[in-house]
Write a sequence for this structure.
């Protein structure tokens, strides 16, 4: 693929053909104009140089940074040079040097072993006049057979050169048959061919890969990967955009070691959870800090960015890398840079894709026969009259019944279109882009839509002053019922999937369940299911997120070594959520007694304004063998959040929808404003000696308005050392090792993710959910209730930064000219003074307060292996494999507290049942409950007075009258009864390891991308099975999974599923519904074809690619639910819970990319 | 370098003020409580606790405190406080503890800032008195349910409060009495307040009597407190303002109709509305404890509490309270309409099927009726209780019933049989009983008069007969011949009761998790 051909230092370019054209021209001119004595060395390394009025020292510095070579020149030469202004893109190192010394007689000596390049004054210009002996002709083409005009051919060891013409043809004269022809072209691998007897030599040049010179963005600057001292993961953006998803985060899963990305369920537009190197905060957010085009945001709307616009994603993981963002970097930093325009011809690229999505898996439900049989066991009397009055059970065998899943899960269309225009000249470059993304949900009446535009411009005002602007606007709409949200009753029966799965497959009477809103045989006082089809169609739920960001910068070169940069930005996000429930919806229908609000609707707004001012001074200089790069800066940031909205209930005219809310009764009006500010000083020193020994020291001081003055400042130092062993003598002789680098870093980072006013004492008239959502009022003398105000929190002046110290030991190994690159990191991340929203003794009257309490340790290992497995003329196969292991351990908690528990609110009966235990010495949030021990069998009982009575010594299950077929739990405390003391840890939602395996195959113009992602060793609580595989709430007319067909009956003494009515205690969890949620997924599949350029020329198209992609194609798992990647109540303390999750979709898309 | 450091320090100092922020998100105590109105908002927050679902809004009217010899929880959930099968992490127990301390904390705030606003001293005293009384009342509920509890009385020392030790029941009672006495001198007369929803002097006096009565019984057993009961009840009885509503049933119909009768109903928890507007201030009176029907016009009721024959048989046939407290009929659909169909007298097995009938939603005037929320107030102190407390304390104090004691109990009985409360009725009035007979009479009379008002369990406990009574109840269910087998499960509560374990609730497990120094109540370890 052309795209792949782009050398990495050159990834700013939009696409290959444009680049190729530019290079062809450039190279052609170069080749024609430049005639110098040429040293025999090869300069395969490609460099880019964009300098204005630069000294040769600066040019050398830049070349050094890019190539790792050391450059020196004769003083006489350098003195003669005028300031150099160059704009070279991806040229040979040598050609760059030639440009610098244009018009100077120079000789370039290249010491390959030491990687030293010396530019000397030429002794004399050798004027050889060798009589041509042999004339060679031939054609130079690329791998696809397209001619390469402007390629350079020269005779090795001689001055003789030739340049290919437009058709790729060349002619060169060689002295003899021993001559070796050297073919080179920018962006392609050099080839040398001995002339021998050949007179016609056609050459196919292969594209080059130059991972080694990858540039890594590290915050307030970038370094070459080889010079990196910290642990920074880089996502392959070319691979990421192959996934047909709305936000880059979704495609990030499994791409970078140490970065765990998961989504709670498949709801379109639902956020993803990104955790870098394990969760360290228990009650606060563990999501990383995002720095998008230089603007740090804690909770960005990542879906507002078009993934196609992204140039690079760098993930800072260790303390050395993150410390420059000190205060907020404890959870890691994700740096996103977007594409910029480049000087040269205007490039237009367009991309359109269209696709279809289907649900990955539906559940097998009971058919009418199985259902009626089950009803009979549940209540024979009712079943006789309702289902069997005029027909037999057997007659239901032929009945097809309703398939509610089929009614609700639809094939949905997905579309994506984007267009970008970029270009510029030496002074100004720009890029304009726009995109439209439309993803229908696989559940009816749901989906997601994005309209987005971006504009950026960079302008060189003078040789020293440069300014630029980068803006992005994204309007994002997610609509449709949130599947994981309960109705007003809070009952498990008020969820969407409950209605879909639980609705009867057969009515038993003459009426059509499809057409009626309620099932007439359901007791609506405790079962809130409604016809999911009608309700979902009538619901209006829309979240509109508009986000505008404007960033600008100016950089001024004070001296050749000193640069000042001022940048700033503004970010505005409006998040508006509208909902309206008319009388045909489960929340709005007056037919359900739980709906105390009648027809109602809500409008809520969150406005967030954030501004940033950053001022940095950077000094860098090469002094002999020492390279010093010093950065200092001061930054200011402020964020203001304004939240307001209202609910109107008992809306009289429902046909007006949301615009009729004004006629309803006002219910809850709220408005909130909060603000925080951050002031930071930062400094960083990068030093290296001979590109062998590296030192990075970083320091950042942050002051946050969230804390009281005496605890306001946090200081976050870090240091890192790196040793490039490969440049030591003892290693240089080991030919197959191309890189060997050891890295060590240690440092501290912080976290201040708490409410803006957390340490203050506060009162409230409208307290949050912790107070039971009990609106504070009291009515005296039957008058309209009067407001009550209550204390919410007490003053805690001592509240301060949470600090994470991290030790990282890393090793980079490159073998066989970096065909194999291994990166390994081990780390130990220790978080102290946790900003814990700590449980308080209830007798204080404050349920929870923010305190600096607790300590959490994360230890882990990360491995990344990049390999070029096959690299032949026509076929290449490259792969990336990464795996991460993280172990989490809680070291201390709130004061004397040895453990605490968390419950999941999903069903009234279970709301106060503890499901997660967080205990000192254990990983956070372990599943907690009874150990399921099968089902009681006849042999567990004695028969007393015709009754089954448990044998002596057989433990009970907590209910009064245990019968054969009842569920059985393990009696851990040996008291023969099941009680609280029998609960224990029954599962771990944290994976043992996660990772990804990406493969890129290319054969001529065909590319195949296969990406596997996995998670191993994590458990999930499949609460759906509590309801649908055992009917724990004991409801009539509730359909079940067909797996429940294998329940215990006298004829089928199952030990896995209890009998009907044998579900035992209500409101308890057991290991029965804990499942291994490990999975491996063929997450992205993409097959692309580059249409040969000869077909495109006539259409004035530079390049065209057609591809076929699929997402979530195959999943291998033992998990019995719809999808193993599930966590519907996600927080650090409540992971891996599954109830009524929105199903995940498998999507197929056809994609066309064109550039003009 | 030095210049750089100096510069940084300079900038730092200059910029520090950049980081100063003023909360815009909420009220802070420092800038609140500036006016009488704001102080009253604070007081409303203290009252609000009474109506919370963990207190009288739900739990205390049907699940906790009612689980005694009068009725049984007729929903076959086999665990929970209503059947004495629960653990120290029970959400209801934890909820009750939590809300009571919430109320105490809220009251502490009001008391802390009582002097802040400029206002009339009368109003200030009234607010202070109500706050002090409510705080003491919450401590009273704590001490009768947990005995040894942390005593937090101010907000000035948060760190001390965080590690507050448990105090003995005696200390807690002494604090309650001290505070209530103070409140008594501060709050308004009942005649001035004019309705039962706000704390009046009479409410304080009557509850003080109840506190003293409990302090005189188990576990503190300070018999001298009977004298105090006489003193406090006399303050209510003697002036003559308080009297009984001539009709027993009207007392309860008043609650449904949102009418007040402060002469008898001295203190009530106020519930309001049907959730149709923007408030959710309804309660579950009549919803939990009522005559079951799903009919929206009558008013949905779950009828969680069915009665025991023990209660039924305490009444004589002429006692008009019986068929009010115990619904003699149920709703049955006749021609599609819910109709009041009498429980047949035979078989008398049906007694256990009957429901608590004190709170009947059909009388509610708020329309439409909400399924789960009723506007009915719940009585916390009725004058008949005051009279019975007087009679009991006199018998205990003097070792035998005094004429005043007879008069007090007879006033209650006369009204129950339709006689004039104040008109002596020689043939009917009780007389000539010894200490033990009178004591037994009081114990029965309290049940007849006050059943299902959340008092019975703690009466039995302070009398020291809780365990034995519950055993008897369990026997009734197990061996009784007047009961259907399908109802025998109702004896579960009695069967499960263990002494001394169930005389107290356990300190919530979460609380001991955070503060392991808290000593757990006996047998709850």
């Amino acid at each position: 693929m052309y795209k792949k051909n782009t050398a990495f230092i050159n990834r700013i370019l939009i696409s290959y053909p444009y680049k190729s054209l530019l290079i062809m021209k450039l190279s052609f001119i170069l080749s024609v104009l430049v005639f110098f004595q040429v040293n025999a060395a090869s300069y395969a390394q490609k460099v880019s140089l964009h300098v204005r009025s630069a000294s040769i020292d600066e040019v050398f510095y830049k070349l050094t940074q890019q190539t790792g070579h050391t450059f020196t020149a004769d003083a006489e030469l350098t003195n003669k040079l005028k300031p150099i202004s160059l704009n070279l893109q991806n040229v040979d190192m040598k050609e760059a040097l030639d440009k610098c010394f244009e018009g100077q007689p120079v000789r370039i000596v290249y010491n390959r072993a030491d990687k030293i390049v010396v530019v000397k004054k030429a002794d004399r210009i050798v004027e050889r006049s060798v009589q041509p002996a042999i004339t060679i002709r031939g054609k130079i083409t690329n791998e696809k057979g397209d001619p390469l005009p402007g390629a350079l051919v020269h005779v090795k060891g001689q001055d003789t050169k030739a340049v290919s013409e437009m058709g790729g043809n060349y002619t060169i004269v060689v002295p003899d048959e021993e001559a070796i022809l050297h073919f080179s072209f920018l962006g392609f691998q050099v080839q040398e061919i001995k002339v021998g007897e050949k007179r016609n030599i056609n050459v196919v040049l292969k594209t080059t890969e130059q991972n080694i010179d990858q540039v890594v963005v590290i915050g307030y600057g970038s370094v070459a990967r080889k010079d990196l001292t910290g642990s920074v993961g880089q996502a392959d953006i070319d691979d990421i955009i192959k996934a047909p998803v709305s936000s880059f985060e979704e495609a990030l899963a499994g791409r970078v070691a140490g970065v765990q990305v998961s989504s709670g369920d498949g709801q379109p537009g639902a956020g993803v959870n990104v955790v870098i190197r394990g969760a360290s905060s228990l009650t606060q957010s563990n999501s990383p800090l995002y720095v998008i085009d230089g603007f740090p945001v804690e909770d960005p709307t990542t879906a507002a960015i078009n993934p196609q616009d992204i140039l690079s994603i760098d993930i800072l993981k260790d303390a050395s890398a993150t410390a420059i963002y000190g205060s907020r970097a404890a959870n890691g930093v994700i740096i996103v840079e977007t594409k910029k325009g480049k000087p040269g011809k205007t490039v237009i690229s367009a991309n359109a894709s269209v696709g279809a999505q289907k649900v990955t898996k539906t559940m097998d439900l009971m058919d009418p026969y199985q259902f009626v049989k089950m009803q009979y066991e549940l209540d024979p009397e009712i079943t006789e009259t309702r289902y069997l009055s005029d027909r037999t059970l057997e007659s239901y065998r032929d009945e097809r019944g309703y398939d509610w899943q089929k009614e609700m899960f639809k094939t949905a269309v997905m579309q994506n279109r984007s267009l970008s225009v970029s270009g510029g000249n030496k002074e100004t470059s720009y890029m304009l882009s726009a995109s439209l993304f439309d993803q229908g949900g696989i559940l009816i009446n749901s989906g997601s839509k994005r309209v987005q535009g971006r504009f950026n411009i960079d302008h060189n005002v003078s040789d020293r002053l440069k300014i630029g602007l980068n803006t992005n606007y994204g309007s994002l709409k997610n609509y449709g019922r949130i599947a994981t949200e309960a109705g007003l009753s809070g009952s498990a029966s008020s969820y969407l999937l409950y209605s879909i799965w639980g609705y009867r497959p057969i009515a038993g009477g003459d009426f059509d369940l499809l057409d009626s809103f309620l099932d007439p045989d359901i007791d609506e006082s405790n079962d809130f299911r409604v016809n999911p089809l009608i309700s979902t169609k009538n619901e209006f739920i829309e979240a509109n997120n508009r986000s505008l960001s404007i960033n600008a910068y100016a950089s001024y070169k004070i001296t050749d070594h000193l640069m000042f940069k001022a940048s700033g930005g503004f970010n505005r996000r409006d998040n508006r959520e509208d909902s309206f429930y008319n009388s045909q919806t489960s929340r709005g229908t007056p037919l359900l007694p739980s709906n105390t609000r009648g027809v109602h609707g809500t409008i809520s707004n969150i406005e967030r304004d954030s501004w940033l001012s950053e001022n940095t001074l950077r000094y860098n200089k090469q002094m002999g063998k020492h390279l010093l790069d010093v950065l200092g800066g001061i930054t200011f940031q402020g964020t203001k959040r304004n939240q307001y909205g209202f609910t109107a209930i008992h809306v009289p005219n429902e046909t007006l929808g949301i615009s009729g809310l004004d006629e309803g009764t006002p219910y809850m009006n709220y408005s909130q404003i909060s603000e925080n500010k951050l002031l930071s000083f930062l400094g960083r020193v990068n030093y290296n000696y001979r590109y062998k020994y590296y030192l990075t020291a970083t320091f950042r001081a942050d002051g946050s308005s969230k804390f009281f003055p005496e605890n306001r400042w946090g200081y976050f130092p870090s240091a890192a050392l790196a040793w490039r062993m490969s440049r030591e003598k003892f290693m240089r002789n080991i030919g197959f090792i191309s890189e060997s680098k050891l890295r060590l870093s240690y440092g501290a980072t912080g976290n201040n993710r708490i409410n803006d006013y957390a340490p203050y004492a506060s009162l409230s008239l409208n307290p949050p959910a912790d107070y039971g959502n009990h609106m504070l009022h009291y009515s005296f003398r039957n008058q309209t209730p009067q407001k009550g105000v209550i204390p919410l929190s007490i003053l805690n002046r001592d509240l301060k930064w949470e600090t994470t110290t991290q030790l990282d030991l890393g090793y980079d190994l490159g073998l066989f000219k970096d065909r194999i690159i291994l990166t390994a990191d081990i780390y130990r991340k220790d978080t102290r003074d946790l900003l814990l929203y700590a449980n308080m003794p209830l007798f204080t009257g404050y349920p929870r307060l923010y305190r600096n309490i607790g300590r959490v340790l994360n230890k882990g290992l990360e491995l990344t292996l990049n390999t070029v497995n096959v690299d032949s003329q026509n076929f290449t196969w490259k792969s990336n494999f990464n795996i991460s292991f993280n172990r989490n351990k809680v070291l201390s908690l709130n004061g004397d507290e040895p453990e605490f528990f968390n419950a999941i609110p999903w069903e009234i009966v279970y709301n106060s049942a503890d499901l997660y235990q967080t205990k000192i010495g254990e990983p956070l949030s372990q599943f907690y409950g009874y150990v399921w021990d099968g089902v009681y069998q006849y042999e567990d009982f004695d028969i007393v007075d015709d009754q089954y009575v448990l044998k002596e010594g057989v433990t009970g299950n907590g209910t009064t009258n245990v019968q054969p077929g009842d569920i059985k739990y393990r009696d851990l405390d040996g008291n023969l009864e099941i009680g609280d003391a029998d609960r224990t840890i029954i599962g771990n939602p944290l994976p043992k390891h996660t990772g990804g395996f990406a493969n890129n195959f290319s054969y001529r113009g065909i590319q195949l991308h296969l990406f596997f992602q996995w998670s191993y060793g994590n458990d999930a609580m499949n609460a759906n099975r509590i309801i649908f595989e055992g009917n724990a709430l004991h409801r009539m007319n509730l359909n079940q999974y067909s797996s429940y067909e294998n329940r215990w009956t006298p004829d089928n003494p199952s030990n896995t599923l209890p009998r009907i009515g044998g579900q035992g205690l209500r409101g308890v969890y057991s290991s029965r519904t804990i499942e291994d949620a490990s999975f491996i997924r063929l997450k992205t599949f993409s097959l692309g074809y580059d249409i040969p350029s000869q077909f495109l020329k006539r259409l004035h198209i530079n390049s065209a690619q057609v591809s076929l992609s699929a997402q979530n194609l195959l999943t291998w798992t033992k998990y019995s639910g719809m999808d193993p990647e599930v966590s519907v109540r996600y927080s650090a303390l409540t992971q891996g819970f599954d109830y009524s999750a929105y199903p995940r979709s498998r999507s197929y898309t056809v994609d066309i990319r064109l550039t003009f | 370098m030095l210049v750089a450091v100096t510069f940084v320090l300079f900038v730092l100092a200059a910029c520090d003020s950049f980081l100063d922020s003023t909360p815009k998100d909420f009220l802070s105590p420092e800038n609140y409580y500036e006016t009488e109105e704001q102080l009253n908002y604070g007081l409303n927050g203290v009252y609000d606790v009474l109506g919370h679902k963990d207190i009288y809004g739900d739990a205390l009217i049907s699940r906790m405190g009612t689980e005694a010899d009068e009725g049984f929880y007729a929903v076959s959930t086999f665990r929970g406080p209503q059947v004495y099968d629960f653990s120290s992490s029970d959400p209801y127990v934890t909820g009750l503890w939590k809300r009571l301390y919430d109320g105490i904390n809220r009251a502490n705030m009001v008391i802390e800032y009582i002097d802040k606003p400029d206002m009339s001293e009368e109003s200030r005293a009234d607010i202070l008195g109500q706050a002090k009384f409510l705080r003491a009342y919450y401590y009273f509920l704590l001490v009768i349910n947990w005995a040894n509890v942390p005593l937090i009385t101010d907000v000035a020392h948060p760190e001390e409060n965080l590690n507050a030790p448990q105090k003995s029941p005696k200390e807690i009672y002494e604090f309650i009495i001290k505070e209530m006495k103070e409140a008594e001198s501060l709050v308004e007369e009942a005649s001035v307040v004019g309705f039962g929803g706000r704390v009046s002097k009479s409410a304080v006096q009557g509850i003080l009597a109840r506190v003293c009565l409990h302090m005189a019984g188990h576990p503190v057993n300070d018999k001298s407190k009977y004298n105090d009961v006489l003193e406090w009840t006399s303050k209510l009885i003697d002036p003559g303002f308080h009297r009984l509503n001539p009709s027993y049933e009207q007392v309860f119909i008043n609650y449904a109709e949102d009418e007040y009768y402060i002469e008898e109903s001295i203190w009530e928890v106020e519930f309001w509305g049907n959730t149709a507007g923007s408030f959710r201030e309804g309660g579950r009176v009549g919803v939990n404890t009522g005559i079951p029907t799903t009919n929206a016009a009558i008013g949905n009721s779950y009828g969680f509490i069915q009665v025991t024959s023990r209660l039924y048989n305490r009444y004589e046939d002429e006692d008009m309270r019986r068929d009010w407290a115990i619904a003699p009929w149920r709703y049955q659909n006749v021609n599609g309409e819910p109709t009041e169909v009498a429980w047949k007298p035979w078989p008398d097995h049906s007694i256990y099927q009957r429901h608590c009938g004190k709170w009947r939603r059909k009388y509610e005037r708020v329309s439409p009726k909400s399924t789960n929320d009723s506007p009915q107030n719940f009585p916390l102190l009725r004058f008949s209780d005051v009279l019975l407390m007087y009679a009991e304390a006199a018998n205990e104090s003097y070792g035998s019933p005094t004429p005043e004691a007879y008069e007090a109990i007879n006033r209650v009985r006369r009204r129950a049989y339709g006689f004039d409360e104040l008109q002596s009725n020689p043939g009917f009035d009780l007389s000539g009983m010894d200490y033990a007979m009178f004591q037994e009479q009081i114990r029965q009379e309290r049940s007849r008069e006050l059943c299902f008002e959340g008092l019975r369990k703690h009466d039995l406990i302070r009398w020291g007969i809780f365990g034995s009574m519950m055993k008897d109840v369990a026997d009734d269910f197990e061996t009784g011949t007047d009961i259907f087998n399908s109802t025998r499960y109702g004896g579960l509560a009695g069967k499960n009761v263990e002494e001394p374990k169930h005389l107290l609730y356990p300190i919530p497990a979460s609380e001991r998790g955070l503060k392991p120094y808290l000593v757990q109540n006996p047998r709850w370890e």
